[in-house]
Amino acid sequence: MELSSVILTTGGSVGFFRLLNAGVRKLPMPESACRNAWKWRNISTSFVHSFITAIWAVLCFFRQPQMAEDLIETHSVFSHALVSFSIGYFIYDFLDMVEYQKLSQSWELLFHHMVVIACFGFSVLTFRYVGFSVVALMVEINSVFLHLRQMLRMAGNATGTLYRVNSIINLGTYVVFRINTLAWMTRWLVLNRDNVPLLAYTLGSVGMAIMTAMNIVLFYRVLKSDFLKSSTRENKKEKEM
């Protein structure tokens, strides 16, 4: 992809997600979610991005399996477009949070988005590490269930069978596609230190350190909310009986 195509894809992605957000505004919303309508629209839009990106990332390696053997140079227009498309989403989401949320509430995600935009931007502009970026986007497989979890909670369905099933799948995919993927990427970066320029290595190392820390904290919060608390409540009921 030429630079003009990158700009067009990224800009088109920003516009697409803004239109999608506006479209969600016109759809029926659960009554319990009306208290925070912006968050419902934001998460719904993020859910669509995760769904599209998860399928797209898998297809990138399915269409070009040799990319897995060379994450630095090997890539296709299809995979390059995916990374550009995701940059557009993160720019959209960054602007959406700046407009509707207080800095004290969103600074962690804003910082996360800036790091992702910088790393992905470096990749699409230099036409290197595109495969590495696509591996990073495999975490969106888990994000599908993570966003669905938030939507179910906002809709007041945090106790039903669907929520419990989603919680189990969410936890499993979190370990496989977030924690394991981040660990594998960190290992790859260390093993390929001699093949990666200092700027790219520094950017990647800082990005991986931040992502790992944030994801460990998020994993603990999800585990505590969906499993540890429910176990505590069950133990209390048994003691009362």
UniProtKB/TrEMBL annotation:
Topology relative to the membrane: Multi-pass membrane protein
Superkingdom field: Eukaryota
Keywords, sorted A to Z: Membrane, Transmembrane, Transmembrane helix
Transmembrane segments: 45-65, 77-95, 107-124, 168-186, 198-223
SMART domains: TLC
InterPro entries, sorted: TLC-dom (IPR006634), TLCD (IPR050846)
Chain ranges of the TLC domain: 35-231
GO biological process: membrane assembly; phospholipid homeostasis; plasma membrane organization; regulation of membrane lipid distribution
Keyword Plastid among UniProt keywords: no
Compartments where found: Membrane
Keyword Membrane among UniProt keywords: yes
GO terms for cellular component: plasma membrane
Protein name, entry field: TLC domain-containing protein 2
Source organism of the structure: Cottoperca gobio
Annotated gene: tlcd2
